[in-house]
Amino acid sequence: MMKRLAIEAMGHAGEADRRVAGTLMNSAEDLIARVRAGDDEAFRLIFERYARPVVSFIYDMVGERALAEELMQETFVRGYKNLGGLRDETKLSTWLFGIARNVARESIRTQIRRKRQLELDDPSVAELHDQRLPPDDHLINEEMNRAIRVALRELDEDKRLVFSLKVFQQQSYEEIALITGFSMAKLKTDLHRARAEMRRLLRPYMEVSDEVR
Amino acid sequence: MKCDECLPLVEEYVDGELNEREAEGLQAHLSLCASCAEAVDALMREQEIYARYERDIEVTPAMWHAVRERIEAEKQTQQTQSSKTLNGWRAWLAEVFSPNSRLRPAFAAALVLIALLITTVAVVRYLKSRQEQQKLATQDTQPRVMPNEVKPDKPEQVITPESPKNPNVTANVAAPDKREVVAASVHDKRKALVTPRVPQPETPRSPALTLDEVERTAALVAERDALAASVAQPSGESETEFARHVEQAQMLLRSFKNAQVAETSHALDISYEKGQARKLLYRNIILRREAGSQGNAPAEKLLNALEPILLDIANLLDHPTGGDVRAIAQRMRKQEIMAALQVHSIVAQNSY
């Protein structure tokens, strides 16, 4: 995923290229200072830099695209309103993920029963527990994507949170502790158990993937 | 490192969270242990699968527009609310103060009452603070008896036509006038002595004076008057304050010196002197600044010399070592601070 992002960044031409270059040249501290001084263009640059990881993270947490997009917008609106409260020593990404986590959690609380019902009725869940899928090459990635998405929803909220931040967002343990408020011990335990659970749920697909290789 | 030590660290190793020492130890084990190396490989294969994970979601320009619109809407809402509040207040005030308003007399009366209340509270608090200040000033003038105190000898009064007290006599009176008066009174009243202490040590009282002694005394008085002229007293209200401060500083330093003299092998207890020194120190700073602003160089010089000694005493431990106390006493002797304080004390008393 990260590689793809990098390739995309390099492959853009024209205005997009300049925008990316401009983003990279501005440090987070500069952008924050400019936003606080009333420069909305600086906030747009912040949005461009962090929107994708934030929406990906929220999507991992809530599992619905439209909802994830809406919650991502909410995250950045809250971020804009509360930027004055961001302490200098806190990383912008850590802070934004913290807001995103709160936004996602609030949404999950209101939808948790509906989600459980959805999982029971979702045929993709039934498939996850079936025998291994036919080793169809061009479907491997698509099936794996779906399998990962569904498996994530099987994890409880804390494990999903830690797993998503570490495995998908590549945050350090320290940053995850700051975002989640978890102790290091809980974080490591949840991560280990999340990995084990995901391994169990995805074993058929991983074995298929190994065979294809 | 053994397998049972290595396996729990495999995930942290793949996550890049091990410190250098742990990572090196683990790598060394992996090079020798195939099963642990396989566990690491399996974990890294999992990571590769997750790295290829793609979500069915993209960030589009429309999302940024949506965010921007929401931010603008929030700003508008805030501005509307604040202007509503402001307009609300304006409308209410306009209504209250309008000629036809029924609330106008009541509101005016309420305003008058509030103004009266605020004024009353302010006056009461002012009077209270003045009373407290006067109380404190009265307490300060009470003589304090300090442990180990050696009461200072009262300097002999100069018998002059203006004595015993004449507030009109200042140190700026021309020396020759005083000299003549003193010489005349000594001739007339031999029992009255002028024994200025500074800079000479105390002289015993003598009921009868020889002519030599009288002349010597007159010379000493002249010297004292010249010194008094150089030791200008602070003017105005601070004059009393200054004299009181000098007297208390004298008593403190005598007490401190006596405590040092009475030193035994056990540690001294100078907690009382410390407290006094601290109080005098604060006052010393204020008086020094006042003297400086008034251009009173001699007073400022004295207070400047006194201040570090007060600071040293205030900063001592409650039970200091003999060495610490001796150091301060030596400093006092070197600066002749006791003598300087005594001069000022005498001059201040004679000024009255």
Low-pLDDT sequence parts of chain A: 125-134
Rg of chain B (C-alpha, Å): 41 Å
Biggest interface between chains: A-B, 44 and 26 residues
Assign an overall shape of chain B.
flat
Mean pLDDT of chain B: 76
The overall pLDDT of chain A, averaged over residues, is 81
Question: What is the rounded Rg of chain A?
Answer: 19 Å
The profile of the biggest β sheet of chain B is: none
User: Oligomeric status of the shown chains?
Assistant: heterodimer
**How would you sum up the global shape of chain A?**
globular
Overall helicity of chain B? 55-70%
Distance between the termini of chain A: 19 Å
Q: State the helical fraction of chain A.
A: over 70%
Number of strands of chain B: 0
- Kindly name the structural category of chain B: mainly alpha
Order of helices and strands of chain B: HHHHHHHHHHHHH
Largest sheet of chain A: none
Q: What is the number of helices of chain A?
A: 11
What percentage of amino acids of chain B are in beta strands? under 5%
Low-pLDDT stretches of chain B? 147-176, 192-202
Strand content of chain A: under 5%
Can you give a write-up of this model?
The complex is a heterodimer of chains A (213) and B (352). Chain A is mainly alpha-helical. The relative contact order of chain A is 0.09. About 5% of the residues of chain A have low confidence. Chain B has 352 residues and is an all-alpha fold. Chain B is 69% helix and 0% strand. Chain B contains 13 helices and no strands. Chain B is flat and about 120 Å long. About 12% of the residues of chain B have low confidence. The chains are: A mainly alpha (213), B mainly alpha (352).
Q: Can you summarize this structure?
A:
The complex is a heterodimer of chains A (213) and B (352). Chain A has 213 residues and is mainly α. Helices cover 82% and strands 0% of the residues of chain A.
Features:
heterodimer, A: 213 residues, mainly alpha, 11 helices, globular, B: 352 residues, flat
What's the SSE blueprint?
The complex is a heterodimer of chains A (213) and B (352).
Chain A (H helix, E strand, L loop, with lengths): L1 H10 L2 H12 L2 H9 L3 H23 L2 H17 L10 H30 L1 H6 L8 H18 L2 H12 L4 H8 L3 H29 L1
Helix pairs in contact in A: 2-4, 3-4, 4-5, 4-6, 5-6, 6-10, 8-11, 9-11
Chain B lengths: L2 H4 L3 H5 L5 H11 L3 H18 L9 H37 L5 H39 L33 H14 L22 H20 L7 H24 L9 H24 L2 H19 L6 H14 L1 H15 L1
Helix pairs in contact in B: 7-8, 9-10, 9-12, 9-13, 10-11, 11-12
